[in-house]
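Colleagues,

Please find the record for the two-part complex below.
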Amino acid sequence: MDRPLALLAELTYGCPLHCPYCSNPLNLGDYSDELTTQEWQRVLVEAKGLGVLQLHLSGGEPLQRRDLVEIVRTASRLGLYTNLITSGFSLSSRRAEMLRAAGLDHVQISIQAAEQALADRIAGTPSFERKKAAARLVKKLGWPLTVNVVLHRYNIDRVDRILDMAADLEADRIELANTQYYGWAWQNRDGLLPSRAQLQRAEATVRATRGRLGDQMEIIYVVPDYYSRYPKPCMGGWGRRELTVVPNGDVLPCPTAHALPLPRVSVREHPLAWIWERSPLFQRFRGTGWMPDPCRSCDRREADFGGCRCQAFQLTGDAARTDPVCHLSPDHGLVAAAVQAANHGPPTQTPLALRPHPRRLRKS
Amino acid sequence: MPSTMPMQTDSDTGHPRLAPHVRLTFDLARQRHMLLTPETVTVLNETGAAILELCNGERTVGEILAELRDRYDRVADDEVRAFLGDLLVKRRMVISGG
């Protein structure tokens, strides 16, 4: 069995933004019993012992955890590579300086679009100018800056301006990631899915900008799997390289596996090593033995591991089926129909559901 | 002025160092040196780690080659240059001066 390389720590599902493509679970209010500082510190020590090298601090909005600096300091002392994935919305100079002193290695700031009105509309909160200020602060303090932009029907036609904005902010890297349809994004899929023509224009823009900017900024473009022939190798294989700990201490092989009908497992009840090596959840889709056909006999079974279990479950109701994104899947028609509707159907009339703040969902 | 242009290693006068988002670490669990970026992990062999430990932004490529020749019997200069050049292309390394 491989040792995990990376831990995604979703510290809280609290977030000041309401992006309709959020991949957090729909039942946000069920995760309000968050791990304490000491519990997170123990998780980090156990993760390091298990072989984890990279720590991604995310959420929700990780800056909403008051103990973020302490958590970073612990991770840094353990020698983990620490990466903060943030909206940048509430990054004050003082907090940033404290995080820098605590040893934070890298910051990724999400930005919704290159124009204030559109960006604020997508985020559901006036946040554009604060995000740009946070990006400048990151550079001023000498951190490497990655700008993350999730692409969908409403911003993909403006990729040229998005790239110019990131270059103006002196980003070292920009990640243009087409929306993956989980959580709130799954609810909003038919409104978010771009057309093939939109994608082709965006990809041409990315190629041209790479040529123009040369080495000034690295441009990472994450393809949309609905338009791919083969599925993505989700998480590099189930329980193979990464694990996710969510706000209440549940551990998942991938950040969207909450919804799968599998036994849950928590750092509050078991050591991380037992969870990785022995828990039924992590063993369920590990390797290739669980695979049905066409995956079982496919040459690509060790390349894409049958694709994404969450996507198979969402689309077919059975997490053990081949990811329907694959053109070889017997269920591929489900994806083809969504793509067909995005390209030829009438425009969707349903307004996008904005991700609420978990406090508004908390059970009384 | 730092540059991330593919390295002109022929001159050997540039000062290579890891890019700001890259870290070299020794992983106790696997007993290997690793090169880390936010999304990638590169396993290094002993020689690769020895080369990168010398890339502190102060030594030139020429000085690094000389240092390696002091330590090891056989040093293929072109292979060291190719190793550094590859990391430059992958943006794991920057080179200044030269």
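Chain A has 14 helices and nine strands.

Comments are welcome before we finalize the supplementary table.
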